[in-house]
Amino acid sequence: MTISPLVSLRERLPQLKLTTDATDLEHYGRDWTRRWTPAPLAIALPADIAEVQTIVRWANETGVAIVPSGGRTGLSGGAVAANGELVVSLERMNRVLGFDAADRTLTVQPGIALEAVHNAAREHGLIYPVDFGARGSCQIGGNIATNAGGIRVIRYGNTRNWIASLKVVTGAGELLELNRSLVKNATGYDLRHLFIGSEGTLGLVVEATLALTEAPPASQVLLFAVPHMQALMQVFGACRSRLQLSAFEFFTDRALHHVRAHGAQAPFEQVSPYYVVTEFDAADEAAQAEALAVFEHCLEQGWVSDGVLSQSEAQARSLWRLREGITESLAPHKPYKNDISVRIGVVPAFLQEMQELLTREYPQFDVVWFGHIGDGNLHINIVKPAEIDYAAFIAECERVTELMCEVLRRHGGSISAEHGIGLVKKAYLASARSVEEIALMRGIRAVLDPRGVMNPGKLF
Known about the structure:
Blueprint: H1 5-12, E1 17-19, H2 22-28, E2 42-45, H3 49-62, E3 66-69, E4 86-89, E5 96-100, E6 105-108, H4 114-122, E7 126-127, H5 140-145, H6 153-156, E8 163-170, E9 175-178, H7 192-195, E10 203-211, E11 213-214, E12 219-226, H8 232-242, E13 245-252, H9 253-261, E14 274-281, H10 285-301, E15 306-309, H11 313-324, H12 326-330, E16 336-341, H13 347-361, E17 366-372, E18 377-383, H14 390-411, H15 435-448
Parallel strand pairs: 2-4, 3-4
Antiparallel strand pairs: 1-2, 5-6, 6-10, 7-11, 8-9, 8-10, 12-14, 12-15, 13-14, 13-17, 16-18, 17-18
Helix pairs in contact: 1-3, 8-10, 13-14
């Protein structure tokens, strides 16, 4: 008679919250991709670091794989458990552990929601500047595991820039404390950065110390209607040269169509093929006057056809909803998602080539573009027609993604700008990484996770 490995886990950790409820298995076994059928062995919800270590050591002994779980808002299948893995959800480890006023750092557990981090920072008159639409449900551990970027990368960079130190449990069950919040630390390899963006393949983040900064001056939001794709980067150049930007995002008329169907209001009477929403410092009348001057200049050049400047926080939120609501509005359609990036300097040529490729290869599909164009990151979502079989739809999209990879290679780009590789993109990793790089990455993983229990099947 075979004894379930869960029996030994319960014996070791009798206080561990462990569930095999069918609803929980489905809920915790998938992320936002919805492409794979969740089939985890069970869901473990540890309450502290010691329980996490015991779980990982148990996994090494039993050979049961672990899938780390945060808010599961990922879009690459990185948090999917479809092959009898133990999902380790860190949602119970969700507290603020401390604030250091001198160092301007906030120490938190990995299961805390990004929005809760924002609120905690504001209580001390500071901000944690990484931000994106899923702030209410995504967790800081998952943000670290994917080096999340978001809407204000232009000004603040990615998650990596704001991690002062980490505590991690490796795939072997060892607890490491990485960097100890030092500003300067020239003592060899900074292992902290191996775990940032590792997608849970090296271990689990169990504590993070986040760097905080001063809140920016009062800001305003400006929405442009842009008549043609070639003007997008011209508008960006005009804004960047004269305004202190925090964000510069674009979306297409098809994106606006879906957001409006989801409840948002149209910003202009006439529909434009492209839109830009930008946020900038507007602490005084001079800054606001400069923004109006930028708009007038772009209008004179024919780069924009209309615009609206926020006059209140409520209006700013309404304008941002047009961009931040896109992913949610598309979710019911189960779109195929591309998350790609190139250097800002090659964006114009890349956009032109991509437009030609997508028009040629997807004549029958609804293609929705949007993204952080100010940092070279584009999201391309393909909406499945109702009459096409899902498997056939995915196969067609993967065929076109192979062609997209060739374009990215020519422009020195990346197949994953901020969502990670996960299950969705591992076939395309070689388009952005050399054979030598991938071999080194595999070697690093083998050292930190010698038995291969951490999120197997992801990334490679």
